Every structure is written in C-alpha cells, then in structure tokens.
C-alpha cells in the first residue's frame, strides 16, 4: 500500500481496493501499530505524511490513498493538518477511517475532562499502572459478546453458571448494584450492564484514557445503566455505596498490596453479596515472562512494548524460524489482540511446514493438540481463535481440545 501511495497510480485507487486499504489501516490502529516494519519503511511512511501535510497546507489535490496509507502507520489525529483533511470531500470508504482515528479520539478527549474522580491516586505503583494505560488504553475493542441467553437475575445467572454447586446468591432481582473494579476500556462492564439491564453498574479504573474509551463505547451502544469514575481500589473504602456484586478481573495484582485491595472490596460487599476475582497465575504466565526476558536480552526493553514486539516479530520473520511462541506475544501479553496473534500463528505454521523435521505444531502455537493432523492444524487454529474472539472459550476447547490451562 505504501508503494502504491507513493506512485503515480495512487490517484486511481478506488472502490473495493480503496475500501480494503481503509480496513487495513483501521486494523493497524486497533492493533497499536504492532505490525513489523523496517527503518526504511518507517522513513518512507513519514515522508508520505510530510507530503500529505504540505499538500493540505497549500490546498493542492490529495489522492485518497495518501491519508489511508499514513493511517496504517500512525493515527491520523496526530497529523498537523488534520482539520484541513476533514474539510475536504472524500470517497465513502474513508468516512469510517476518519471517524475511528480523528472523531473518536477527539470525543474521548472531551469525555476524559468530564470523568469523575472518585478517589486520589497516590500510591506509586498505582501511578505507574495508571501511566501505562494512559499511554495505551488497552484493549481497543470493537464489539462485545452477546449476553448469555436472555437477561436474567443474578441468582439465575449464578445457577446457570454453577448448576451443581451450592452457591449462595444475593436473593435479589431487578435493580442490584454492581461494581466493576478495574474496568479498563469497558468491555466487561458493558457486557455485564447489558446482561442485567435493570442493574446499576459503577465501573472504576485508574486510567481516565481507558475510561473515556469505555464511556464512548457505552454511548455508541446506548448502554445507560453504567457510571464511570477514576479511582484507586486501595482508596475505595471511602465510598458510602455498597454492592451486591463486585467483579475484579485482572486488577488486584496491579496493586502494591493485592490483599489490601481485596480487603477494601470485601468491605464494600453487602451481606449475601457475591464477588468474582480474576488473578494472574505464575504457571499460566510463564510464557509471557519468557517473552519479556527475550525482549530484554535483545536490547529492546528500553522502548515501549508495542515497538519492542514489532522488532521481535521482524527478527522472527527474517530468521525464518519462530524465536518466540505466538502465545508469548499474543493477545494475553496485554498489547496485541487476537487478530495479530492469529497472524503470528499462521506465519509460524507456514515456517514450520517448510521444515522436514519440525517440532509438533502445538508446541509452537499452544492452541492445538498432537492428535490434530498437520494438514488440519491451520483450520483447527482458525476455529479456536474464532471461538475465542467471540468469548466462547469452552467452545474453543471442544473444537480443538487444547490444554485449557494454556489459554490462561
């Protein structure tokens, strides 16, 4: 696409070809621009951005492919002449791209200034975590999964989830109070709010950038029963409100003292309430720690993680053999979504398929057992990833029978 944009044929790109280029640029934005590219390619992308800026400033014609190609390498809202870009008339495929990379980030900036601060963020570890997600409000999700069955009471939901377990339930229906402690960019909170439309949901997080993404998506999906607020879990004890349900999935371990955070959440739980906790596992995250060690050993730990991962992918592809597993640099590393993981997996499949004495493919991708024949591995992985993207991990396990522990 960059070659085409820099050529005399750029003006002729239209229709489905232009729509495809727009879709690719949007995917690059969602993936935090994690695709690997060489220094020469980056230089040419910057040169194209400069040409685009100069043309807009001088009111000269601009091929539609120019802003699209630039958007595949950096967000359009950072282009100096972005307002001049919006003032022009463009083909329809560019509308969604401009909305994603210009209008939506501007809306999130507006929301950020309006987000309530429920507590101070004073702890140094909490401040560091906040800064990470202010820079990278992850994940930039696009769609939610559908509610599991019809909207139900929390009691009914728990009985469905644990049909044979003697689970104590709140014994309430209708307007229950739910706290999402560590809401991030809001996907979990929105799915819960849609599952229980009469509930009152409070979603808190350290990062205003993440919460502004969440609020924009709530508005987009017309979910009205969520309130968002910036807060440190360690400071939530000051809240007067109490909750029937509290969810803290992947947030307690980000605190300086996870046990202290848990005690705070317990103090907010009403008698008979239920709490869902999701914690990191040393065993399940061994691959991720190995990936971080690999990045550090290659001297990439001095840059932000998306850049480091791009460099690792480039090294892996140029070497022709997997230097690191797909799971290690996959969606659970915190910066890459399932589509990028799928791309890496499939690249490794092709590389492994070209070797006469290759290791079992499941050892590389962590998503497929030895019983799957080599010729059917890629289809099995595709089925697993498709099910995982839809939130149906149990179905994914049934499709390809992976080691469920490896799904983290």
What does this protein look like?
The structure is a single chain. The chain folds into 3 domains: 2-109, no CATH class; 116-278, Vaccinia Virus protein VP39 (Rossmann fold, 3-Layer(aba) Sandwich), CATH 3.40.50.150; 286-407, no CATH class. 48% of the residues lie in helices and 9% in strands. It contains 17 helices and 6 strands. The protein has helices spanning 2-5, 15-30, 39-57, 65-71, 82-86, 93-114, 124-135, 154-161, 187-195, 208-220, 258-267, 286-297, 305-319, 338-353, 361-365, 377-389, 393-400, and strands at 116-117, 177-181, 200-205, 226-230, 243-249, 269-278. Helix 9 (187-195) links the parallel strand 2 and strand 3. Helix 6 packs across helix 10 (208-220). The two termini are 36 Å apart. 36% of the residues are buried.
């Amino acid at each position: 696409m960059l070659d085409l944009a820099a050529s005399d044929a750029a003006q002729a790109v239209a229709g489905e070809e232009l729509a495809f280029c727009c879709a690719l640029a949007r995917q690059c934005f969602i993936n935090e621009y994690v695709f690997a590219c060489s220094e020469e390619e980056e230089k040419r992308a910057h040169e194209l951005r400069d040409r685009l800026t100069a043309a807009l400033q001088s009111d000269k014609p601009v091929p539609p492919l120019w802003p699209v190609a630039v958007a595949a390498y950096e967000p359009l809202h950072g282009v100096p002449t972005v307002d001049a870009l919006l003032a022009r008339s463009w083909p329809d495929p560019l509308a969604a791209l401009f909305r994603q990379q210009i209008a939506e980030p501007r809306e999130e900036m507006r929301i950020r200034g309006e987000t309530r601060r429920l507590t101070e963020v004073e702890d140094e570890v909490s401040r560091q975590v906040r800064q990470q997600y202010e820079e990278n409000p992850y994940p930039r999700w696009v769609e939610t999964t559908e509610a599991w069955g019809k909207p139900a009471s929390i009691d009914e939901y728990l009985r469905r989830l644990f049909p044979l377990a003697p689970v104590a339930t709140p014994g309430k229906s209708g307007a229950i109070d739910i706290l999402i402690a560590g809401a991030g960019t809001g996907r979990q909170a929105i799915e819960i709010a849609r599952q229980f439309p009469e509930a009152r949901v409070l979603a808190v997080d350290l990062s205003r950038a993440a919460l502004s993404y969440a609020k924009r998506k709530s508005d987009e999906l017309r979910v009205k029963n969520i309130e968002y607020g910036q807060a440190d879990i360690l400071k939530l004890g000051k809240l007067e409100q109490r909750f029937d349900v509290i969810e803290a999935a992947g947030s307690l371990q980000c605190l300086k003292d996870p046990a202290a955070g848990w005690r705070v959440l317990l103090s907010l739980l009403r008698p008979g309430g239920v709490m869902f906790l999701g914690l990191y596992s040393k065993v399940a995250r061994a691959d991720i720690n190995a990936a971080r060690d690999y990045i550090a050993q290659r001297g990439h730990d001095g840059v932000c993680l998306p850049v480091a991962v791009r460099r690792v992918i480039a090294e892996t592809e140029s070497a022709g053999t997997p230097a690191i597993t797909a799971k290690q640099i996959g969606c659970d590393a915190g910066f890459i979504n399932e589509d990028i993981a799928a791309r890496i997996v499939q690249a490794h499949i092709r590389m492994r398929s070209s070797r006469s004495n290759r290791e079992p493919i499941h050892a590389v991708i962590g998503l497929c057992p030895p019983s799957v024949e080599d010729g059917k591995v890629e289809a099995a992985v595709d089925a697993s990833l498709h099910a995982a993207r839809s939130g149906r991990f149990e179905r994914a396990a049934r499709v390809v029978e992976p080691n469920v522990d490896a799904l983290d």
